Amino acid sequence: MPTRLLLLSDTHVPGRARALPEQVWRAVDAADVVVHAGDWTTPDLLDALDARAARLVGVAGNNDGPELHARLGEVARVEVEDLRVAVVHETGPKQGRERRADAAFPETDLLVFGHSHVPWDTVSPAGMRLLNPGSPTDRRRQPVCTYVTATVTGNRLDDVRLVPVGR
């Protein structure tokens, strides 16, 4: 069976939304691994996701306070099956992102990041997949709020889907 991933970032609860939408909680329940790329804003959401997710991997973002930074750190590196995953909040400007990611995260198959609230899906020159799931609660300049689902089989990332969040 493939491992089911849910990628989140920039939830900003309770700043941008009082709570995660029920659609997102259903996705949490369906996932084997939930990855959150920062900007939780309070530890309450971290605690709630940690209690409900089968496995949670997360980092702190620029809007997260000292407690979240102490609990999570700014970089996470994990293996999901044989896929080498790194998670950060911010990668800098979009120009040159893939080359910077190759330099900063060698031997990484998938880099999950956030910060911009803008979905991103590219492959670096070294073959690393870069994914930003957008935000499920604050669409900014995007037409809809979003998150990403995917599956992992061995070292292969499959079925990557940008999922719109209904209102």
Question: CATH topology, which one?
Answer: Purple Acid Phosphatase, chain A, domain 2
CATH architecture: 4-Layer Sandwich
- The residue-averaged pLDDT reads 96
Distance between the termini: 32 Å
From the spread of the alpha carbons, the general shape counts as: globular
Domain module count: 1
**Uncertain parts:** none
- In CATH, the homologous superfamily goes by the name Metallo-dependent phosphatases
- The proportion of residues forming helix, as a percent range, comes to 10-25%
Q: Note the beta-strand portion.
A: 25-35%
Order of helices and strands: EHEHEHEEHEEEEE
Q: What is the radius of gyration computed over CA atoms, rounded to a whole number of angstroms?
A: 14 Å
Helical/strand content category = alpha/beta
The CATH class is identified as Alpha Beta
Short description:
Helices cover 20% and strands 32% of the residues. The chain is an alpha/beta fold and 167 residues long.
